[in-house]
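Usage

Read records sequentially. Each one opens with the input sequence:
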Amino acid sequence: MQGALQLLQSSPGAFAALCAALGLAVGSFLNVVIHRLPKMMERGWQAQCAELRGEKLPEAPAYNLLTPRSGCPHCGHAIGALENIPVLSYLLLRGRCAACGKPIGLRYPVVEALSGALSAYAGWHFGFGLAAAGALVLVWSLIALAFIDLDTQFLPDSITLPLLWAGLLLNLGGVFTALPSAVIGAAAGYLALWSVYWLFKLATGKEGMGYGDFKLLGALGAWLGWKMLPVVILLSSVVGALVGIALMVAARHGRNVPIPFGPYLAGGGVIALFWGERLTRTYLGLI
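and closes with the structure output:
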């Protein structure tokens, strides 16, 4: 055990490879979170509404992140261990269910590959230690949030709020930034988009974004500190604007059709995590 720890500490490549393998495995679980968590939230809302009406919903089978077992959405075929190897199983099965032959969504290997690649880079970038562990948790959470928001335009509190508190706790030891910077970052991140929301609503009478976006930027501020917020906001806004224009031009995406902002915030957060300080120094050097 001691020898293995020494190897991980002394060999960045070995640690990055371990992080990649862990990221691929976690990516497979993230697919479950992305698919099931919104459905779990919907069931919870239905139960709360029924309780307020004084009704009792009929008993339903257990449905959570562990139960029932994952299966093909077309035929219900239970996915075996050999069919659940991240990325590799998708390639061996040629993107189709082993039982019914129906296509498997490309989303699954994309999430797994993205998780594996970003996890490997986090291990390489930070090296063996608490910073790498924190970076892995942040990256995995941002992947889940980005894809959930793409599907549902929701950023679940069950991820954003624990992420915010985890960032503050981690920075008690100054892992990514000093604690005062983390506290100011959490408040400034939330209030920045909260202010934009209310200015837009007062000016147009419409809601330009959801409260989940405020909480996500607050969480990123808690992890990275207030100095990284301009980088996150600028990157996410530029990319979001470019993608929105491209959708309207190429796909005739109407202006009134909402575009989730969470994926762009998540992308900006990942870039700031790895290269934020370098980008800030470059920008300050140019001006």
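Summary fields computed downstream for this record:
- Residues 51 and 71 are 31 Å apart (CA to CA).
- The chain has a mean pLDDT of 87.
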